[in-house]
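Data card: per-record layout.
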Amino acid sequence: MELQYADDNAIAAHSAEELQGILNAFAKAYRALGLALNIKKTQVLHQPPPNQPTNQPAINVDNTPLENVDHFPYLGSILSSKADIDSEVNHRLSCASGAYARLRRRVFEDRDLRAQTKLLVYRAVVIPTLLYGAESWTTYSRHLRALEQHHQRSLRRILRISWEDRRTNISVLEEANMPSITTTIMQHQLRWTGHVIRMSNTRLPKQVLYSQLKEGQRAPGGQKKRFKDNIKTSLKHFHIPMNNWEEIALDRPRWKKSVQEGAALYEMELRRIADTKPLYNMQVQQMKKWVQSCIDHHKDKLSSLSRDIWADPEIGGQETYAVERFLRFFRSDPTWSVQSPYMIPTAFRASWGPVGGNEGDSVLNLAFLCEYNALPDIGHTCGHNLIAEVGAAAGWGLKAALEGQTELPLRVKVTILGTPSEEDHGGRIQLLDAGAFADIHLVFMAHPAVEDVAFSSSLTVTQMLVKYHGKASHASAFPWMGVNALDAAVQAYSNLTMLRPQLKPGSTFQGIIKHGGVKANITPDYSELQYCLLAPTLKEVVELKAKLEACLRAAAMATGCELEISYPGYTYLNIVPNATLAKLYEDNGRALGIQFTKNPTKFAASTDFGNVSYVIPGIHPIFSIATDAFNHTEAFAEAAGSEDAQMYTLRVAKALAMTAVDVLCSPRLLRQVRDDFAQAVISNMIK
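The structure for this 687-residue chain is written out next.
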């Protein structure tokens, strides 16, 4: 009856036969008392010896079979068939998060309460919830790490410590005057062990503590930890002598004092070790130096890549030479895994990693996007050869910073994604639809222009094709027998011209009459207009569509023509801002000498990066290449291929890679990026 509590019983047995016999005895006793076992609430959990197959026992009560489960709750704890505490730790984290959330507004975010009061409430409510039952846990580093992260996150919120403060975990604990979770668990377990030592030898907890498994094999890769292994480690850390600790434990006051003093000594040791480690900021700065050093080392190779793409311009969908040039570039280092074609014909993907974190942890995949299509006849007038160089350089630099890193808080992967056909065919939208971004978590790219801006807005744009169908006739002999489709087009053009003053600021459209007839003496039976609709957000484009369609229908009604409206191609969405990434990029850029424009020109253009930014957090700064020429001009194309552009291009690549370093080294900062993304997407959807 060791595991009986009120009307709850957990029956432990060494075999199915023993368990069946005990249950039969229970059922018989209950029947004699006029009671019955609740079959629905009675479950069987089998814990096989290590590396032995799980053969579920067939246990029944009064010939009714009981359900076999792999875990079940008992007195608030989760018991598992695997004899581990993974489910229990996850359950505790969930319960503690719930306890914190219930007190968040009333206590932890109440500015009228002192921080010390909030910490007392946290210590009295959240910590006991988090560590309920921890006295008997057999913990691994992954469990302690998850618990410590929850502890740190809660304390930093209570103390209003931001990631910008660059505070170490130890300094947070010192300010809160609290021990680490690791120390607290060891202290609880030693106190409990002392209680077990003082029990009678017939008690189950003491038998379990001193027992040995008779069956089972050694686990591949090392023996599984036992609870007593945890205790031995705790005794060592708390400086309690191994040769007579049981004797000390028999004296309750003496044991309590030894455990308390040991916990204090261990916390002091943790602080001493932390003081001798390099500061977090020093590690980040060193990684940023490696980024810069790598890009500088490969500058000739990167310049050659950009120059070759510039010298052989290819329009969207036909960038075969550019892709081949990228493949040669990345395959010069066999540590890159290269795929080409990737999802669509002239796309490619180069990946490296993952590194850091722990095996089995989720991977943070950072992608740098490359563009490389040119415009018909006028070549790289938008400088996409430099976008290609920035992506390749930033990815290569980040890889250099991550190589050899063993203490990263996350597992990190670096991806370079070649995204063709940006100007006309929505290459990135095609890749989104094909699933190319499914495993990517952050995206980075930069576009050359005439000024340096950390975030520059773009417009949502869609194409409209308008067709009027009339009736042909002889224009001079029988004009009354015709229906003039050109009149409809001219009337529509006039209607839309009069609509312009009524548009919201930022919304606009441009259009042409593409077809107006075939001969002057034939009443045109067909006309065609093409329009481009632009607005700050998708919602405003939808509103703009409705206004234009009303004007077009009016022209059809006035002339008697039939109207046909379609929207060919892809809708390019506006870029969703990310304040955290923009601030980090600006800080890193300034450190490299970039002078950002205080009052930047509005980016009255569109890009398919906007569609990506609605799905994945990202950044799309623009950068100056020291030319007064504007994009889509021959002068800008000349500047994009010049040697003068190289310094500016590689400097931006460094700033992007350094921004990635900031994010991947700070889980809290990564959460902030994701929070900014979620809020910005919602804001853009409701505008």
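Known properties of this structure: The mean pLDDT is 88. The domain at 284-457+574-686 is CATH 3.40.630.10 (Aminopeptidase).

See the next section for split statistics.
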